[in-house]
Amino acid sequence: MNSDVIDFASLAPAYPELVVAVGALVLLLLGVVINKERSTVVSLAAVVVLVLAGIVLLFVPAEGVLFNGVFINDSLARFMKVLVLGGSAFALLLALPQAEEYGTHKYEFSVLVVLSTLGMMAMVSANDLMSLYVGLELQSLAAYVLASIKRDDSRSTEAGLKYFVLGALSSGILLYGASLVYGFTGHTNLQEIVLAIAGEGRSIGLIFGVVFLLAGVAFKLSAVPFHMWTPDVYEGAPTPVTAFFAMAPKVAAMTLMIRLVIEAFEPITRDWQQIIIFLSIASMVLAAFAAIGQRSIKRLIAYSSIGHVGFALVGLSSGTQVGVEGVAIYMAIYVAMTFGLFACLLSLRTEVGPVETVDDLAGAAQTRPFSAAIMAILMFSLIGMPPLAGFFAKWHAFLAAVDAQLYLLAVIGVLASAVSAFYYLRVVKVMYFDQPVRTFQAVPAELNIIMGLSGFLIVTYYFTVGAPLANLAHTAAGSLF
Fold this sequence. Notes:
Blueprint: H1 2-10, H2 15-34, H3 40-59, E1 64-66, E2 71-73, H4 75-95, H5 99-102, H6 107-124, H7 129-147, H8 154-185, H9 190-200, H10 204-221, H11 230-236, H12 239-264, H13 269-290, H14 297-317, H15 321-347, E3 349-350, E4 353-354, H16 364-367, H17 369-383, H18 389-403, H19 407-433, H20 445-459, H21 466-478
Antiparallel strand pairs: 1-2, 3-4
């Protein structure tokens, strides 16, 4: 009897995952019992499950390695899991006001979001190539279904199919890379891989394995040139689902990238640095120029997210603790900007339905001044204008690059930011200076609250959460060095 208690207590580092896993099963039963079409109760219960997991994560700060070394819970994992849980919870809240219209009124939607979140938490705590893959696939399989949740919409089903086909390809690439790394090191555990590389040195086969492995993760991250699915899936999936894709999975994939390059491949830093620098420059430059011609708002946001992944990778390119701190801060601010942006997008609805193009936003400032003001603030923050939060996100990333003497990378980042200002400012111009062509409907109270919260955090970042966030990011990054 006592041994059972001890065994359960030894699982303390995985308590948040256990809460989410059990919660997903309970939600599934609840959805079947209540009613297939009454998802509001299930959605709210799903938010409660995610919040409860977050509370356990914060107030039961157990750290350690479990399950024969395949699972690790350290300061970095806890920091990123809070962002994952927060992003998923906000995505569920964003889906509530117009659930029927977007096809998210089915109880399966909430269950799939929770299961995908469980996969992301496993990714964040992956300490082995096998657990890395299991977490990645759990997250991805749920995401494929979420993309096509609106089954009577051809664009949604097309988005799900494209995501599935390209996702399967990326999984194959990642597995091939993992098999090469295993073949040339004899290990799948990240700590053992780094010792094997340090002892035996680099080899061409290992470098190939690293390239394929990072390419598979870069697909999940939407980094160029593995971004091809992002604009189509973002545009075709229902808007609340797109909001979910733009937040939590990015954080999980970025954490996975950090663990691989900083923990497993630290002895060959010069080799993986070249890959990360290429991904960073390609993502920033392509996103900056490709978004200029976009008229669809969701495609614009897709290219924006690709660009921001590139900016975050600038910090990681340094391979230093300051760089990892910069990435952690960047991802936290990115999640705050993204949930506010999608709240604004969902709040601006016309009599013919949700806005789909930039031109549909014409005159929004005249009839919906609060939504337009928050959206304008977020656009300036996405550019990186001081003193908004987006400026400090890029500041930390570029500072890490300069410290590592990657001056050219920092300069390219600043120039890409300048180019991206064009399409962000165009949205502000259309809202404030163009004549309205349609009437905007009333905004649900939930969205006003989310927009207000996001706007407050972005504007007052330096005076409110800036210092605490920097301290938490410093502690999180310190767990790897």
